[in-house]
Amino acid sequence: MAWLVLVFSGVLETVWAAALGASKGFSKLWPSVLFGVALLLSMSGLAYSLRAIPIGAGYAVWVGIGAVGTALYGILALNDPMTFGRIACLLLIVAGVVGLKLLH
């Protein structure tokens, strides 16, 4: 259960990162509200997960999911450049996250 909550919390990290950008420095109400709610839920899920998962693996998986998710959101929704190098680096992050989970 802890791993499932951790993955969901990592996805919420992508949500709050995207909402933070959309809030334009907290000048837009609804993206700012979404940021706050997603941040609170994401951190709460991380805290819950770390009761059963070692902090090194848990935090790295959480950050990895958030980083890859945010980068993909930028590529797919915001027209950030999609280059071979960027995709290769994202795949390396995914490989590291999977490795941490498997070696836990």
UniProtKB/TrEMBL annotation:
A molecular function GO annotation: transmembrane transporter activity
Gene3D superfamilies documented for this protein: 1.10.3730.20
Keywords: Cell membrane, Membrane, Transmembrane, Transmembrane helix, Transport
Membrane-spanning residues: 33-50, 57-78, 84-103
Topology class, membrane: Multi-pass membrane protein
Compartments, as annotated in UniProt: Cell membrane
Annotated Gene Ontology cellular component terms: plasma membrane
Family recorded in the similarity comment: Belongs to the drug/metabolite transporter (DMT) superfamily. Small multidrug resistance (SMR) (TC 2.A.7.1) family.
PANTHER family reported for this sequence: GUANIDINIUM EXPORTER, SMR FAMILY PROTON-DEPENDENT DRUG EFFLUX TRANSPORTER SUGE
Protein name as catalogued: Ligand-binding protein SH3
Origin species: Amycolatopsis panacis
